[in-house]
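go over this:
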Amino acid sequence: MEMATMVAGGLALAALALVLVTLSRGQAAQAAARLQADALTRVIEGIAASQAALGGRLAQLAETQAASQSQLAERLQGQERSLAKTVEERLADMAKRLDDGVQQAAHRQATSLHDLRERLAVIDAAQKNITELSAQVVSLQDILSNKQARGAFGEIQLNDIVSAMLPPSAYRFQAALGDGRRVDCLLDLPNPPGAIAIDAKFPLESFHLLRNARDDAERTLAGRAFATAILKHVRDIAEKYIVPGQTAESALMFLPSEAIYAELHAHFPDVVEKSFRAKVWIVSPTTLMATLNTVRAVLKDARMREQAGVIQKEVRLLLDDVGRLDDRVGALDKHFGQAVEDIRQIRISTEKVVKRADRIETVQLGDEADGPAAEVAAPQAKLP
């Protein structure tokens, strides 16, 4: 608008200058001056109209600009509100996530602490068990250091294995063999092979000397002592517990230690061979269980043979009963045949009686009996 005002002022000054120039030239140019004045007036009026139109346009432009600014302000306010809402939602979501993470971390920490307490309790229990086991090991060492206690330990282990593998009727503990000899266990088997004696031996001292040998010389001496101890036990068992006519031709020597058994078979094959020749079979807890499995199979086979004999006897008796039943059925069949024949004869007699009753029914009594019907009926009555 300031530019339009300046343009209008400039035009007015130009028109005034033109009028002054026209007046100074004289009257001759008055007509032309009037014409120019009229033209100038029209120009000024056009300029004024243009100025007015320009003002209207500028006013319209200002209104449009104000409306645009208002819309822009509304949009900015809406964006601000949306941005504030988004930021608030994201902050709330972040706070929720942080809260959930803290709760999960607290839960995991509590679980970890619970698991840690349980593991500590298990470790404590295991430590107590180790302590008790250490005490038991010390007690076991005290037991094994005494020959009598060590022998009782072997007998108890033998008792447990045999009791677990065989029925009570298949064995006897501390069984008498005559002359006051008693064997740790006697397996009652049918002939052959007969009763098998099992005696528990535990040569622990010589085995410890062998294991604790520091050089080859000590190892050789300890090995000889170990072999001598084993062979002495083998001879004792062969002499005491293999009784002709009372036991089998062989016996078992039970070593209640897998380590001693493994050492014997690994480094003393000559001792094992001598025991074989003496018919004394050396067994450990594991091999004894395998042997008792075989014994159980033998007992089962013997029981099956006994039961087979009983079954055969019962089958023979059953066949005799079937023969007698067949004879009785034959006799009953004869009786049934005779009864059928009697019934047939009874049916014949019954039919005759019915026929005679029919003939009697056709006979007429009284006056009607004198007629032809009576003459006809009379001969019929003579029929057999």
User: Anything to note?
Assistant: The first helix runs from residue 2 to 25. Strands lie at 171-178, 181-187, 196-200, 251-254, 280-283.
